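Allow me, if you will, to draw on your knowledge of protein folds for a short while. I have a record of one protein: its chain in single-letter code and its fold written as discrete structure tokens. I should value your view on which stretches of the chain appear to form regular backbone elements. Thank you for your consideration; the sequence and its tokens are set out here:
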Amino acid sequence: MRISPLPPLQALIAFEAVMRHGSFTRAANELHLTQSAISRQVAQLERFLGKKLFLRERRTLRLTVSGQIYAEQVQRLLVSCAESTGALMKNKGGSELTIACSSGATVLWLAPRLGNFRAEHPEVHLRLIVNDSLSSLSESDFDVGIYYLREGAPKGLAARRIYGEEVFPVCSPKYLAGRTILPVDLPKEMLLMLEDGQRQWMSWEAWFAQNGISTSRFQTTLVANHYPLLIQLAIEGGGIVLGWRHMIDSCIDSGLLVRACKGSASASLGGGYYTVWPSDRAESTASYTFRKWIMLESVRKGSPAE
């Protein structure tokens, strides 16, 4: 049976963009068209429907009542179509796998091990998404993720813990230059800090509080929004950074980093690193294989998953 009536697809896309931006100009910029082209497409849609969708007033653009009702339905259908299309494009016979990771987990943990997975499973085609914010990802964006979680899996996702959390200060041996630093002396050192945007992770303030060290201010700090950059700065002797056990094991094993303080000064907020995956989608063979491989990797060098 023929599906009818159907409006022109490009006109629907133009209408949705104008509705979202409230501007023909901004919609044209997003779609890489001219303002007049967008205006013609919206006018074409209005002629097709036989109804006005926008009230064009001086310097303002407002949806009519019919336009508002139609806009909500069109946007929902276009989003659903885009998600279905993206999911289908990713699924090449179940052999394509999209992995989402935070930058720290990608650079410090996954990248050194990924060659092992490719050697063991050459049939799986990999795609990586590096995004520090799991909440900004749609469930259709990835098949498996590796993320730090503190309060359980977000809605729509299943999760399995890889490692529990243990956080301690680390630095380059050349930064210490033979010195012994006590935890109470750390506020006087150059501290490398992750900026406030990643506050679910352990901060220096929380670490000091858990270790019973009071501090009103830090003497010298360097703040960045990219954790692997802070690790690299520490390796270069640029200061002391908080390190997550298991994530930085390779840096410690190679001697690039050492614990900044002797003893077992560490802290935990009760979180850990998890594999996450969409709970309401049939899991592909590639996804299951990768998750199983992660758990085997976590115990391969005597670092049991918790």
Remarks:
- The CA atoms of residues 3 and 9 lie 14 Å apart.
- Residues 167-259 form a domain with the D-Maltodextrin-Binding Protein; domain 2 fold (CATH 3.40.190.10).
- Residues 302-306 have pLDDT under 50 and may be disordered.
- The chain has three domains: 9-90, 96-164+271-300, 167-259.
